[in-house]
Amino acid sequence: xxxxxxxxxxxxxxxxxxxxxxxxxxxxxxxxxxxxxxxxxxxxxxxxxxxxxxxxxxxxxxxxxxxxxxxxxxxxxxxxxxxxxxxxxxxxxxxxxxxxxxxxxxxxxxxxxxxxxxxxxxxxxxxxxxxxxxxxxxxxxxxxxx
Length: 146
What we know:
This protein is mostly helical. The protein has helices at 2-13, 21-32, 36-51, 54-57, 64-85, 87-97, 100-118, 121-128, 136-143. The chain starts with a helix and ends with a helix.
């Protein structure tokens, strides 16, 4: 059940990936050309960006310097990936499905970044707190006791 909840939450945080060979190749290229540090930098940038939402500001205190630094780091990563590492794949994917190719391909990278963060024991413990508030019996009755 804990794994099911984790995957459900990951699905909320990422967009659906269009299954197109060119987009899939672009996403694979992005994944193959990033390190764990790159993916953590991407996750940090997403966290900072989400912290700017009015509903999130009450639980986050991200200063403008941290926001700018995170954007600089991910901007550099984006440039490296598109210009140096995956230019052919980017062009092919955009040619196949248009600009949505970037959203779809980077969703793959976002999923990897989230998976990497989710393996941390502290993150798992924090996410595990949700289990206290889920009615497992009712969930099991809905999904058929799977």
